[in-house]
Amino acid sequence: MAVTSRDIAREIGLSQSTVSRALRGDPRVTPATRERVREAAERLRYVPDAAARTLTTGRTQIVGVVVADITNPFYPEIVEVLHGELGQEGYATVLLNEPRADDLAGQLRGRSVDGLIVVSALLDEQFARQLSRLGMPVVLLNRDVDDTAVDCVVSDNVAGGALAADHLLALGHRRIGLVAGPANTSTARDRERGMRQALAQHGVPLDDSLRRSGSFSHHSGHQGCLELLRLPQPPTALVCASDVVAFGALDAAKRLGVAVPERLAVVGYDDVAMAGWEAFSLTTIRQPMAQMARRAVQLLMERLRPGTSGEEPQREVFPPHLVKRETTAPPA
Fold first, then answer.
1. In angstroms, rounded to a whole number, what is the distance separating the alpha carbons of residues 9 and 18?
2. Which value, to the nearest 10 degrees, does the dihedral of the CA atoms of residues 51, 106, 181, 272 take?
3. Which residues, at least 6 apart from 269, have a Cβ–Cβ distance to it below 8 Å?
4. How far is the CA of 306 from the CAs of 58, 218, 299, in angstroms?
5. Alpha-carbon torsion 230, 235, 241, 247, what sign?
6. Quick one: how far is CA 144 from the chain centroid?
7. Which UniProt keywords apply (predicted)?
8. Counting Cβ atoms within 10 Å, is residue 309 exposed (0-12), middle (13-18) or buried (19+)?
9. pTM for the whole thing?
10. Could you tell me if 113 and 107 are in contact, meaning their C-beta atoms sit under 8 angstroms apart?
């Protein structure tokens, strides 16, 4: 038979209401009493009844995390941090792995969550309307959505794009190509903007014949790089919208026998764990994703507190950093 809060109350001589408050973390219960309840609950192998807790508190203690493609190594690294941070706050995680995140209401139908962290936001009016209609706290992580009144945690992607361009220019490259990401994402838009601005400031505007675009995928990087390297005058350096795109570009260069970095310098973006593997040793722009994910959880917890729904949304921007490895060098 399942152990209940009444069993814990009898075990340690407290009222059932005090035990229930202690199990919910109610601040009216002293730390010493909460610890007595916790020890008794552990000793009796008490498992909270989620349905009963929801009826009592109006909360499910579940947070939804929306990502675009869980097979992309960028997302599991974020999800791991989010899962750990939410767990410490007493929340379970429901992962919504969707190729499109512009129908959140439909995705959430039948799922009871207290709030959302969206890692795959899109730049369009329909998505902005979806966010405003959800009726729950939402935090955007990694991407921004224009004219949307929700909390947002991003890195400075414009500065990151400029860092990539400045690094290649400092090495002496002038014929610099780009494999951009999807136009309907703030990350792709802002990274390209930063790159273009830095190149223009040095009198080397981006040659649009050296630009290709696609998804944040290996296929996109592979196809884009193949096309660029087959040009009569190929680029000597390539900026990629993400590390996964850069991995595809490296494979394309290998397929065509183009030595990296001797004949082609490659810069990625994100600094996923694989970027540091010896097989890649990818020069890239690092986003402090663990710090950003932790801050996203903090903002969501703040929004879940009573009386905070009317407060102005916060937008927090983290600085990116250049990580030099073995895929960049001066042009031959």
1. 8
2. 10
3. 160, 164, 191, 239, 240, 241, 242, 243, 246, 284, 285, 287
4. 12, 44, 13
5. positive
6. 11
7. DNA-binding, Transcription, Transcription regulation
8. exposed
9. 0.80
10. no
Strand boundaries in the chain, DSSP class E:
62-67, 92-97, 115-118, 138-141, 151-155, 176-180, 211-213, 237-240, 265-270, 283-286, 315-318, 321-323
- Measured CA to CA, the distance from residue 323 to residue 314 in angstroms comes to 29
DSSP states of 58-103: S---EEEEEES-TTSTHHHHHHHHHHHHHHHTT-EEEEEE-S--S-
Reading the chain (332 residues) residue by residue, the pLDDT tens digits are: 678 888 899 999 999 889 888 887 777 889 899 899 989 988 888 876 554 454 445 567 889 898 888 889 999 999 999 999 999 888 889 888 764 555 556 656 555 788 899 898 776 656 666 766 777 888 999 988 877 788 999 999 999 999 999 999 999 999 999 999 999 899 999 999 999 999 999 999 999 999 999 999 999 999 999 999 999 999 999 999 999 999 999 999 999 999 999 999 999 999 999 999 999 999 999 999 999 999 999 999 999 887 666 678 899 999 999 999 999 999 98
Closest C-alpha among 92, 75, 74 to residue 83: 92
The structure tokens 């706050």 sit at 89
Give φ, ψ of 210 to 5 degrees: -100, 20
Residue reference for tokens 């960049």: 328
**Helix/strand/coil for 205:** coil
Contact 42, 23 (CB under 8 A): no
Angle between the N-to-C axes of helices 74-88 and 289-304, in degrees from 0 to 180, rounded to the nearest 10: 40
Domains and CATH numbers, the chain: 5-57 (1.10.260.40), 62-155+289-318 (3.40.50.2300), 157-287 (3.40.50.2300)
Is residue 151 within 8 A of residue 140, CB to CB? The reply is: yes
C-alpha span between 294 and 110 (Å, rounded): 28
Closest to 82 measured CA to CA, from 295, 325, 228: 295
Q: What is d(CA 252, CA 256) in angstroms, rounded to the nearest whole number?
A: 6
